[in-house]
């Protein structure tokens, strides 16, 4: 099978908003991002970010990001059968001819209750596991495939994830944000 994946282009602003709206206080209260920055006393424009710590020592923000991906990313995998094949499907068997195009919306997987219990609820620590070798709590993708899969997986996925985490960490640690009181039935950050 050959093919590609489509990703949502407007994810960054939306995901930043959701990260704030759902988890900012928990992340800040637990101090999971403060040790990532190297300060003299107060943060300045010249402070440095320890990116390795952000990647390896902050499971809650990373898990929150994965949960945001699961809830809002509407990736669609598109594949083309490069040879005739049979695909089992329960009691059925689908016969795909050479050149058959397939489209699979990942939303079906991301909302499957057998994989993600209570799929319509944002659970920020859904992707946190305990590493069997080190005993550390880590965020892992599990069954989630926000970057596609196979040969068509996004080649810039590591950079994109690190970029988002860097931006989120800067916002979280450098600016105080709080929820505004409800006005006309809605709340804003």
From TrEMBL:
Signal peptide residue numbers: none
Pfam families listed in its UniProt record: p450
InterPro entries: Cyt_P450, Cyt_P450_sf
GO molecular function term, any single one: heme binding
Protein name per the record: Cytochrome P450
Annotated source species: Hypocrea virens (strain Gv29-8 / FGSC 10586)
Domain of life: Eukaryota
